[in-house]
Fold this sequence. Notes:
By secondary structure, this protein is an alpha/beta fold.
Amino acid sequence: xxxxxxxxxxxxxxxxxxxxxxxxxxxxxxxxxxxxxxxxxxxxxxxxxxxxxxxxxxxxxxxxxxxxxxxxxxxxxxxxxxxxxxxxxxxxxxxxxxxxxxxxxxxxxxxxxxxxxxxxxxxxxxxxxxxxxxxxxxxxxxxxxxxxxxxxxxxxxxxxxxxxxxxxxxxxxxxxxxxxxxxxxxxxxxxxxxxxxxxxxxxxxxxxxxxxxxxxxxxxxxxxxxxxxxxxxxxxxxxxxxxxxxxxxxxxxxxxxxxxxxxxxxxxxxxxxxxxxxxxxxxxxxxxxxxxxxxxxxxxxxxxxxxxxxxxxxxxxxxxxxxxxxxxxxxxxxxxxxxxxxxxxxxxxxxxxxxxxxxxxxxxxxxxxxxxxxxxxxxxxxxxxxxxxxxxxxxxxxxxxxxxxxxxxxxxxxxxxxxxxxxxxxxxxxxxxxxxxxxxxxxxxxxxxxxxxxxxxxxxxxxxxxxxxxxxxxxxxxxxxxxxxxxxxxxxxxxxxxxxxxxxxxxxxxxxxxxxxxxxxxxxxxxxxxxxxxxxxxxxxxxxxxxxxxxxxxxxxxxxxxxxxxxxxxxxxxxxxxxxxxxxxxxxxxxxxxxxxxxxxxxxxxxxxxxxxxxxxxxxxxxxxxxxx
Length: 629
Ligand code: SF4
């Protein structure tokens, strides 16, 4: 055991015996939560707010119920902040009142006819039907819907979060009472969660990587020297079920997905290096996030086939419409994306550009398109920053990359060139001396910044080889930033915080955490916005500032990133029959110009919790998720 580990254990022993999490609210023990009958849920609904329940039960018309509920919530909100009110609800804890204010805002949004019109659904009508018919009238399985409403009503009544220490202390008293102990308890909690996860540099994982690597080298009858050769990695990609089965065990579901992909020509590409991160004995928690990124699931394949057959546009972000010339995308005032190459050494299942990323053997660089793209940048003095992406530009040889960087560097209005690459993660040997020399030659502090953007999804991807690759880049004064996609596979409690802590230790700065895009083919990856916001507030917030430098963002098709931390950019406006929330987003330009809105239907929190539960998670650890919007 390391000294650091011993010190942490000591802290834990001293503090954990009386450790209590920040709230004592429960979403019931898991089995009851998932097996509650509709009549149990209706009882819970009545307990959450009997006034709302009774208004809906006896109302003659929807409009009458709407009016009564709006008046009811107006009064409730006023009372909470009115020292002269008889209700004395102003005495409640300020955090609970703040959450109640948010919940009431959501409920009032649900009551608005404008929101019913734009979403084409009425939560109010559904709720009234369920209550008046005792659950008989509901088009879908009602659990997800009823749990959303129950938690919302609890929140409106300051019964949602229910702090265990709901104190009437003054500001200073509250700070000083048990301050030191509380902070240590947080440390203890963080460490307990961190202990569940591993990183690629852990000894047991490094040893396993080595065994799989040797098996792969034997399979190709290759030597150690070949392994470190990026070209060799590119020439020995794993592209089929049979190749993969020679090295690792695959589950029936994984085989089924790969068979459909093969039959339907859905590209699968895994570098030998990345395959060495698989657990050869089959999927487990040490490689689940890794496998999910490169093994297409049956549902992914079927939905891709459906899109192809129906000629559905998979350009979710509307890149076609934001391209002034082919190969360039512009969504922001000073930055453009330049895409010289449409493939990558490895193909990620959830790639937002899956509509244009092809197998490496099917792509050649389009010189005239690239030429026109750079010419366009040269002609537009407004542009100061270029993100070279693709595909993965590091699939190209150094000579080609140098040509592109050299031409961009010669444009006097370009201050920053960002090179986006996943090869740090998928084939770290790609960061060779030739590439490092390009960085050194064109990075001119004070004049022109060259930056590397990478994409690490899980701490198990952070191997010794990754650390070496990052250090080579950092040694020439170049910053390395990470863009993480927050998917089901890195969304467990403190899982992403653990990733960010280790990224920072490797020399990579966390930059963006993306909410998964609403593409139907990537449904397996999607996580409710509420979970990302919970992660930011209850997990990432506990880490030192430099470790949590990233910004959680939601990408609005055509317009780009909307900051999730900014409450101004969105509001929940409806709960659909299956419990999914509908959000209204404003673009990043809101407040600069009159903005258009964008409606987004999220993943159901209930379904997300059910999935976690089926995967063995204690969902009580996620119980406050309902109160993030
Ligand atoms: S490396 Fe990037 S561009 Fe390539 S498939 Fe993965 S997400 Fe898409």
